[in-house]
Write a structure and sequence with these properties.
alpha/beta; single chain; 13 helices
Length: about 325
């Protein structure tokens, strides 16, 4: 209130509680794990007040100093540096080197972040369990070598990191595959189906995998994944345009195996949107096994009709997020 009086010009009221809360969140967004549950109007207000996109290298030391005043470095478990478009790789590498207790970090779409930051994380953050580097296009196979040395890593997202080749992916799979639970390799342009086979051999405990947008993945690769990774709860094959009914059969076999084993957490999410070569008969054979699914995306599968919608209604009673092509007369969530 005193500040308001000093600013003068007839301030008649103090800031609302909502305004104070959004100000606090915006200033501390980099250490808050998730704000997704907040109403959209509050999210908009927070993002208006604080945008990582405007941060530059010189902001990082001050930001960390303020952070360490409230959360000491030895207790700082999460950092959100998503969309830091102007932060360079050396600056980010230096910043994370002070965060030895870090368990989760989101660097998604920080486009200048690359191999030095990966090396710093591997050397300084031995407890790191979750790394999201979606859209960090400067990461190469050398960065993957550093990632392969992150011994506590459980969750890894490298979608859109298009400088990564089979060599980098295979290094991660061979060295960290036994501990990885989540792996997102969507739209890696230089990844071949050889990498998928290596992942299937070494990452058998995966619960979530995405190879969306892979132009080289074939039915046999999906078959390998479904045979070996029997604990899958989420499978994203969106826009893998070479896939045919053979991949649907592989998913069916995975579900049969999970049902026989009476898994408490079977496949919940399946995305085959854009796989236009799937036939309705193959999908019809799959759906009676999909009682556990809560999310299904088959957009762009143009051979599907209302028959598919009827089968979903009959067999998929837990479904709460369904996307089918217009030919099924459904285009959004149920």
């Amino acid at each position: 209130l005193e500040q308001g009086r000093q600013r003068g010009a007839g301030c008649q009221s103090c800031p609302s509680l909502i305004h104070l809360c959004t100000c606090f969140i915006s200033k501390n967004l980099h250490i808050i794990p998730s704000v997704d549950a907040l109403p959209s109007h509050l999210l908009d207000s927070i993002l208006e007040q604080r945008s990582n996109e405007a941060m530059v290298d010189q902001d990082l030391p001050f930001l960390l100093a303020v952070t360490f005043q409230t959360t000491p470095a030895e207790r700082l478990g999460f950092l959100n540096f998503r969309s830091c478009l102007k932060i360079t790789d050396p600056a980010m590498a230096l910043a994370v080197s002070y965060c030895h207790a870090l368990r989760r970090i989101d660097l998604s779409f920080s486009e200048l972040v690359g191999n030095k930051t990966m090396e710093s994380l591997a050397c300084s953050c031995s407890l790191l369990e979750s790394l999201s580097a979606v859209g960090c296009r400067q990461i190469t196979d050398d960065g993957c070598t550093s990632i392969a040395g992150m011994k506590s890593l459980r969750e890894l997202e490298l979608e859109l990191c298009n400088k990564i080749t089979d060599m980098g992916i295979q290094s991660i799979a061979r060295n960290r595959g036994s501990s990885l639970l989540t792996l997102n390799l969507g739209d890696l342009r230089q990844m071949s189906n050889i990498s998928i086979q290596i992942i299937a051999d070494h990452c058998v405990d995966l619960q979530s995998v995405s190879i969306a947008g892979s132009m080289q993945v074939m039915d046999l690769d999906v078959e390998d994944l479904c045979k070996r990774c029997t604990r899958l709860q989420s499978l994203n094959l969106r826009a893998c345009r070479r896939l045919t009914d053979g991949s649907v059969k592989a998913v069916s076999q995975l579900l049969r195996k999970q049902h026989r084993a009476a898994l408490s957490a079977p496949l919940r999410e399946l995305d085959m949107g854009g796989c236009s070569r799937l036939s309705e008969d193959a999908v019809a054979n799959l759906l009676p096994l999909c009682s556990s699914l809560t999310r299904l995306d088959l957009r762009g599968c143009t051979s599907l009709t209302h028959r598919t919608k009827d089968l979903v209604d009959k067999y998929c009673q837990q479904m709460d997020d369904l996307t089918l092509p217009p030919s099924c007369n459904v285009t959004s969530s149920r």
